[in-house]
Design goal:
The protein is mainly α. The chain is 53% helix and 12% strand. The chain has 13 helices and 6 strands. The strands form 2 sheets. The protein has a 3-stranded antiparallel β-sheet, with no helix packed on it. Strands 4-3-6 form a 3-stranded antiparallel β-sheet. Helix 2 packs across helix 5 and helix 8 (276-290) runs antiparallel to helix 9. It is elongated and about 70 Å long.
Length: 370
């Protein structure tokens, strides 16, 4: 379903709607669907008008009576709460409208989609610049002043981190930087540039909001206590692990977080957390940090041996160890995996071992393919 246009008038808001997709169906089913569209007009984070429109034809106008509606002062949110099976294309949405929706939409799904579209625009710009640059593309963004190019995105990151209405897990879902750019299929095969883009943005997030990230990480660490109710723990862990990843990723960039502090934070999480997901995330970060600095690798060798001996003593822990090693994304990844497959505990004939290696390595496209 596409929102073609929106116009304000003295009577209210006129929204032009169009549905598509049915045209490709078999002839007997080639007719418009009946689509329930839950909508709202949002001003300053509050629903001013809500309603349900039933779209029954290919093109329709939705007329919403409301007085005093000023252009640019409201958000039109539609398809809320998964009111229908399909997607919404806000064709008439501008960058400013997307920013306002990402900040203030009262529907979490639409807020998420607006934010991800902004992230994709930023990624698309960075990846294109990296592809077009004949030298080391990352040098384009090694200077902190380059962060001004995506200040709107960085401001949104701060708003999300500070939003007390969002749970930590929701914040993590919004802020995670995946190695993809769905809105730009023309760039999807530039695996190295896409990966460089996530590092660039991680470093930019740290330079803009480093103290806030560290403050939140320390708060989440204090809350990660043993015997905490499972549901509460799950809500906290994803954001804590994401912040640790931001800190460690930025450490390889100019004006990034200190490598030694990253190592200490990851070690503390590995040694003190009672949650396997946190231990595994910390172990992955340590493997990556070890590839940056030889002295770090030497100092961590004892820790790596202890983890290997402890985790591989149990079949479940053994698969967790294999998974963590294969998730490490660094220049040492091939040697890590080669050493792993030569270990006595590793058995290619066990599906849990072989498939875990295949998933981890094939998922690292820039290294597996390039």
């Amino acid at each position: 379903m596409t929102v073609e246009s929106m116009e304000t008038s003295d009577e209210g808001l006129i929204v032009s709607l169009k549905q598509s997709g049915f045209q490709e169906h078999v002839e007997d089913e080639r007719y418009p669907w009946i689509i329930p569209l839950d909508y709202a007009i949002v001003i300053n984070g509050k629903n001013i008008v809500t309603g349900l429109h039933i779209l029954q034809t290919e093109e329709e106008n939705l007329n919403i009576p409301i007085e005093g509606l000023e252009e640019g002062k409201f958000i039109f949110s539609i398809g809320r709460d998964w009111s229908f099976f399909g997607s919404v294309d806000m064709k008439c949405s501008t960058s400013e409208m997307k920013i306002q929706q990402a900040l203030n939409d009262t529907d979490p799904v639409n807020r998420y989609l607006a934010f991800r579209s902004i992230v994709d625009e930023v990624k698309g710009t960075i990846i294109s610049n990296l592809v077009d640059n004949t030298g080391d593309g990352a040098d384009l963004y090694s200077n902190p002043s380059s962060d001004l190019q995506f200040k709107d995105y960085l401001n949104l990151v701060a708003t999300i981190l500070n939003d007390e209405k969002l749970t930590p897990s929701t914040k993590a879902k919004l802020l995670v930087l995946e190695e993809s750019c769905p809105s730009r299929p023309d760039l999807q095969h530039y695996y190295q540039e896409i990966a460089d883009c996530t590092t660039i943005l991680s470093a930019a997030i740290y330079r803009a909001h480093g103290p806030l990230l560290i403050k939140l990480f320390d708060q989440l660490t204090l809350l990660s206590v043993p015997n905490r109710p499972q549901k509460e723990g799950l809500v906290l862990r994803s954001l804590k692990n994401l912040i640790l990843k931001f800190l460690c990723k930025s450490s390889s960039s100019k004006n990034g977080h200190d490598v030694n502090d990253c190592v200490q934070r990851a070690l503390n999480q590995l040694n003190t957390s009672t949650y396997m997901s946190e231990k595994s995330s910390a172990f992955v970060r340590l493997l990556e940090l070890a590839s940056i600095d030889d002295s770090v690798a030497e100092n961590l060798q004892g820790t790596f041996n202890d983890v290997k001996n402890e985790w591989t003593a149990h079949p479940i822990g053994c698969e967790a160890y294999i998974s963590a090693v294969c998730q490490a994304d660094c220049k040492a990844s091939p040697s890590y995996i080669k050493q792993l497959t030569e270990e006595r505990f590793f058995q290619w004939q066990l599906a849990g071992h072989a498939r875990t290696v295949a998933r981890g390595w094939s998922g690292n496209r820039k290294r597996a393919l390039l």
